[in-house]
């Protein structure tokens, strides 16, 4: 898998020979030594070649601070996000990069304020991302002030305070400023009002109140505004804003009184609390709105939707809306592409209302709703659908014609009408083997997720005939060793998730893995085989929940980042040669310790 | 090999490589030079000079052209690149769009 990801990393390079060269140049530490003294050639290297070379070295763990020096005339953009080794020494070398315009060191935990000193006075730096470098504080901001060219600055979740933010007012060219998760007050915002070029402002999680929000009127070019998790209840008439996020705020009113000219196109109000939703939207021009997220807002009444005709994306998940509300959705369904009704009270009867009213709908989510097999037959009448999510619903896969008639209809047959269906998720339903049969006729399907303890080997056998399947998940199924042995995966299959299939033994899984080496198998017994490091993923619930780890200073985080995934460090060919020749020394200069 | 089917590539040092036109066309840049109707001198004489590309690199480039044709026809072998020439070769490949 690692090899594949490295390949995609270089894929944007048009020239195949350039790709081969970069691969050869980063084959081993010896290879690097053979070219690193070609100083004059390195100086002439165009940035579009130098940058992929540098980032490839980084991924292969061949990059170290003094090697950075060879790139100091060629690299303009550098992305070191999440690299735990990046520290003040790296920054010292980066400070010498003559033409650096973009630097991303987000999540580099060793970066502190004094490390930023090396950057002061850089001449072309436009973009600096220090997000979640928790050791950076107001002193670090002082070092940045000498870089007059900065246009984009991200310092979310650092230790910068109101005083530090106030200093930013001297960076007159700032157009994007991410101050998310900082404990800053209205005073900080007041001192920023000289930054009239600001287009993008992130203030989530700060102590900004309504009073501070009124300063937002001073930014004439502001198009993106994030006020999530703040105390702002009334948004002033910021007429330039097109993207607004006020998730988890208590919202009294969007815009204050008449005379507002904002052309909002994207609104995110996830988890917001509305006092009176009709009043909140009363001064609001909805004719440009295409994206609306109202998830988890305890809404019962969504009648205001009927005013929003250009809607393409609608998220109402986690609200108390029922079938009667679906009429309002149907009335604005003409342009709808994505609809999320998960965790609502919408039933199959509600889905029926949508039939014929949503001609462009591509994604529908009905997870954990009281919908059943009837809903599937209605979904079969929405021809443009590409993704259907019905996790945790009452779908059983069979419809009994009537009480006395024992003849059953397989409800999933209705999905065969969806010629574009690519993704189907019907996890956590009571599906049995015979109900699965129609799925094997879905030729366009690439992602299939099933999770039912009634499914057996027979299902796996049926599914092997889906030609384009990339990702197949059959969790908690009763699969046996014989079943997996006789399973021939579709040629395009990349991931097979068998988590929770408790009957499978380690030997059977390993022989499958060896036979089909291009399929990534997920199972408790397989992860320990592939790499011991993967264990940390299983044990820590923090992985993959990056946006939620607000202010968390868990020691686990840095520890995890410090672990080098062995699969990234070596190419697939190298790994294979190691596997078969555990005694011989590997091709790279630092031979791996092969497991005894 | 007929003369019309070949092209001559000349390195910085003046070494001449005569190769199949088909092979040379692997490079988008050379293809443009040879096929564009603009009346390039290159089109008429089927001769391209590369004052920026050294002989060793141009030789490797020519090898790559032939390897690439073979690879496209299904013969999947590895194209070995000596690590010390990767940088120069990379720049030449970038210039030649190959």
UniProtKB/TrEMBL annotation, chain A:
Pfam families: LRR_6. GO terms for cellular component: SCF ubiquitin ligase complex. One of its GO terms (biological process) is SCF-dependent proteasomal ubiquitin-dependent protein catabolic process. Coiled coil: none annotated. This is Leucine-rich repeat domain superfamily. It comes from Helianthus annuus (Common sunflower).
From TrEMBL, chain B:
Residues 6-66 form the SKP1 component POZ domain. Keywords: Kinase, Nucleus, Transferase. Pathway: Protein modification; protein ubiquitination. It is found in: Nucleus. Gene3D superfamilies: Potassium Channel Kv1.1, Chain A. It comes from the Eukaryota. It holds the Pfam family Skp1_POZ. GO terms for biological process: jasmonic acid mediated signaling pathway; ubiquitin-dependent protein catabolic process. GO terms for molecular function: kinase activity; protein-macromolecule adaptor activity. Its main location: nucleus. The keyword Transferase applies. GO terms for cellular component: elongin complex. InterPro entries: ELC1, SKP1-like, SKP1/BTB/POZ_sf, Skp1_comp_POZ. PANTHER family: ELONGIN-C. Belongs to the SKP1 family. This is Elongin-C.
